[in-house]
Amino acid sequence: xxxxxxxxxxxxxxxxxxxxxxxxxxxxxxxxxxxxxxxxxxxxxxxxxxxxxxxxxxxxxxxxxxxxxxxxxxxxxxxxxxxxxxxxxxxxxxxxxxxxxxxxxxxxxxxxxxxxxxxxxxxxxxxxxxxxxxxxxxxxxxxxxxxxxxxxxxxxxxxxxxxxxxxxxxxxxxxxxxxxxxxxxxxxxxxxxxxxxxxxxxxxxxxxxxxxxxxxxxxxxxxxxxxxxxxxxxxxxx
Length: 238
What we know:
- Helix 8 (about 155-165) crosses helix 9 (about 175-185).
- The protein has helices at about 1-5, 10-15, 20-25, 40-45, 75-80, 95-105, 135-140, 155-165, 175-185, 205-220; strands at about 30-35, 50-55, 85-90, 110-115, 120-125, 130, 145-150, 170-175, 190-195.
- The protein has a single domain (about 1-220), classed as Rossmann fold (3-Layer(aba) Sandwich), CATH 3.40.50.1000.
- Helix content is about 35%, strand content about 15%.
- Strands 1, 2, 3, 4, 5, 6, 7, 8 and 9 form a nine-stranded mixed sheet that branches.
- The chain is α/β, with parallel strands linked by helices.
């Protein structure tokens, strides 16, 4: 299980990203930049034919490793009750946080991806039930299963398969270009980039990383174009 912990660390993300850094940098542009979740409502989802919202958590729905929904993300409660809209949480969190998220969001599948035996599959916690038993997890890790981390595009493709949806029907929502947005683009999934909630709560390494990715974004694409804050204005796609 020490091997599992190493693969789920930020260094694990770096190790998986570096070999394809060029393609990651070429996929940093989100479908929408939003300063908050206010423009995201039932009309927006219907107009853009969105059937699933895939959520990052730390910096997107909560402050870093907090256990309560942040005030800035209160719209999430309304969105999670919309009929015929799927939701899933997809975080790069380690094992302890993964299980904690299952308690914070008990009615939404908390998903992780793994690659083993030449294919990719998902593990999820929903309503307190882990889809993999402790023995199954240990056996797969011992057999060489590798936890996938954003921005691996296969991760979101596996989520789409699990939800029985096509990638263009989903939207990834997150606060990081290099993981949330690039991972979505690499899978053909649309994306929403938000400013980080509680940036002062993020570890120094993540704060530095977010500064670096913002600089890279401006160098590659120019200044972000933000959608209107007014939720009565339907955001454009582009």
